[in-house]
Amino acid sequence: MPGIATSEIEVSLVSSKGFWLLVDNDELFVSYAEFPWFKHATVEQITTVELLSPNHLYWPMLDVDLAVESIRNPALFPLISKSNPSFQRTR
């Protein structure tokens, strides 16, 4: 039987530039520039977040998973998109 979760997570402020996230007494800023998946999300989608483990956040309404460390140090986790050679555009 699993124990009671002792870790807490809370979105404290949503702005036009990003939002503040409180994770176990650490306040982190999630910038839309660094994390574009949240830019057009609703407040409800942003504030519905789960702490699955001490370093794993999940936004179920957006299907976004993030490591807490990627928010603390986004430069260590660059967004990289590779082209898919089998993808063909239609007109």
TrEMBL record:
InterPro entries: DUF2442
Pfam families: DUF2442
Gene3D superfamilies: Uncharacterised protein PF10387, DUF2442
Protein name: DUF2442 domain-containing protein
Organism whose genome encodes this protein: mine drainage metagenome
Lineage of origin: unclassified sequences, metagenomes, ecological metagenomes
